[in-house]
Amino acid sequence: MANHETIFDQLKKQIPVDEEESLNLNRDSSVGLVIVDVVNGFCTIGSGNMAPTKHNEQISKMVEESAKLAREFCDRKWPVLAFIDSHHPDIPEIPYPPHCIIGTEEAELVPALKWLESENCATLRRKDCIDGFVGSMEKDGSNVFVDWIKEKQIKVIVVVGICTDICVFDFVATALSARNHGVLSPLEDVVVYSRGCATFDLPLHVAKDIKGAQAHPQELMHHVGLYMAKGRGAKVVSKIYFET
Questions:
Q1: CB neighbours of 135 closer than 8 A, spacing ≥ 6?
Q2: DSSP per-residue letters across 39-83
Q3: 167-190 pLDDT, tens per residue?
């Protein structure tokens, strides 16, 4: 019998991510939702250099799950923090091409989440860097994310968004380090919802024809992002249940 196991299948065996864990939330849960960069520039077809050029199932599913979670949280009056990637046209974010320029549709929430702009439960934070924790820093030394955790007395954050292995992972890793360092009290757990995350796809055969580009196979890098997050101390779940 022919062995049809792919290199990706082999890799998943070597660095497995147990996504069978679930998160159960009830009315007493001190929980907040963090949405990372679910903007047109990363999610809407044809919306700039970093947007998909055609339908992408992983990204579409991420948007759907993020919007569904956001609605559940807001219906319960639970806090939501949405990071919005927004860049000045004259300040590049190396090594990436220009994207999500302030004042363009790229730097706006996707239509499925646009309603958050008028929700009292939602805090929107524009950021001009990969890591939302760093992007939350103010000139006076305060930090919007840290203040949000403390003000809302959040013990658990659920993280969704794009890209799993870049903006999501960087934020998760920094939040975990800050928690361990005692600057995010009362935060206890960082939970990554795998079905609510996605990354972009740049196959090797395409990347090799783009100067300076690195191949970025979507399924592989999504898996690696989840694996790295779990290795840093995050909980990775594939199901979230809301108790009535």
A1: 83, 125, 126, 127, 128, 129
A2: BHHHHSTTSSTTS-SS--HHHHHHHHHHHHHHHHHHHTT--EEEE
A3: 999 999 999 999 999 999 999 999
The Cα diameter of the chain in Å comes to 65
pLDDT tens readout for residues 200-215: 877 666 767 677 667 7
Kind of pairing between the strands at 189-198 and 122-127 = unpaired
Which domains does the chain possess?
21-242 (3.40.50.850)
Q: What is the pTM of this model?
A: 0.93
For every residue of the chain, DSSP letters joined together read ------HHHHHHHHS------EEEE-TT--EEEEEE--BHHHHSTTSSTTS-SS--HHHHHHHHHHHHHHHHHHHTT--EEEEEE-B-TTS--TTSPS-SBTTSGGGSB-GGGGGGGG-TTEEEEEESSS-HHHHTB-TTS-BHHHHHHHHHT-SEEEEEEE-IIIIIHHHHHHHHHHHHTT-STT--EEEEEEEEEE---B-HHHHTTSTT---B-HHHHHHHHHHHHHHHT-EEESEEEE--
The per-residue pLDDT for range 21-55, each reduced to its tens digit, is: 899 999 889 999 999 999 999 999 999 988 999 99
And the tokens for 87?
Answer: 């860049």
